[in-house]
Amino acid sequence: MEQVDILAKRLRCPSTVIAKAKEYFRLSQLKYKGLTDFSLAAICLELSCHQLGEAVDKKRCQRFSGLQVKQYLNSYQNIEKILKIQSRTTLRDIALRIGLPELEAPAGQVLKSYQNHLKYKHGSARYEAIDFSSSLYTAAAIFTASKLLKMKCDKSKLLAISSNNMKTFKNVMEEMQEAAASIVQDILDTNCTGKSTIEGSDDQVESITKNPGTVECIRAQSFQERCVSNPKRQEYIEWKEKMLKAP
């Protein structure tokens, strides 16, 4: 599996991605024929990055594979099916991956408003032709929600999860922002008050409340204590530990 290590170094992949890519590589060698080891390694690394929410340059993966674009995409999709990797990613999955589980609910509001917007603006034909459960729309909804709530979010990770190029991702995100304009206040009222938001990161707390005493009080709690009092945070910790232990 040295091909995985060689390409991972060029792509600057973290150790968690490398470990998962090697597992995909081993399984793919048993079930899929017709690719060189370097071609297979490139595909497995991209798959691993997408599954773990890590940024990856799709064009570089394709170039390192030595395959033509169409051949690379076909092989990628075939291996994805063979390994039974779920290409659709739920809002909860993405929110957990990026460490912001509190974005799940507002992202759901954004996605719903976007669906209504498309149906009203373009009619049922376009609305029914779109798979809103695909990672492009769920990732864009998460990022749009983070912008509305002024929460720091890793755009490169969400772009990787979306499995699309920046232009497509940006276009969908801008449409979602337009659609969510009418419900911004509802999103803020629902998600910027109460316990779940206060239990975010220190930066988020400081941006939401100007009361130093409250901030100091929250900072005095340990991270684990906050996780116990917030089910979504606890779920994120459990998910992260599970992914790190995965082969």
From TrEMBL:
A Pfam family that the UniProt record links to this protein: ORC6_2nd
Subcellular location: Nucleus
Gene Ontology BP annotations: DNA replication initiation
CDD domains, per database record: Orc6_mid
Domain of life (superkingdom): Eukaryota
GO molecular function: DNA binding
Domain (ORC6 first cyclin-like): residue spans on this chain: 13-87
Transmembrane segments: none
Record domain ORC6 second cyclin-like: where: 90-178
Main location: nucleus
GO CC, any one term: nuclear origin of replication recognition complex
Keyword vocabulary terms for this entry: DNA replication, DNA-binding, Nucleus
PANTHER family found in the cross-reference section: ORIGIN RECOGNITION COMPLEX SUBUNIT 6
Family in the record: Belongs to the ORC6 family.
Protein name, UniProt field: Origin recognition complex subunit 6
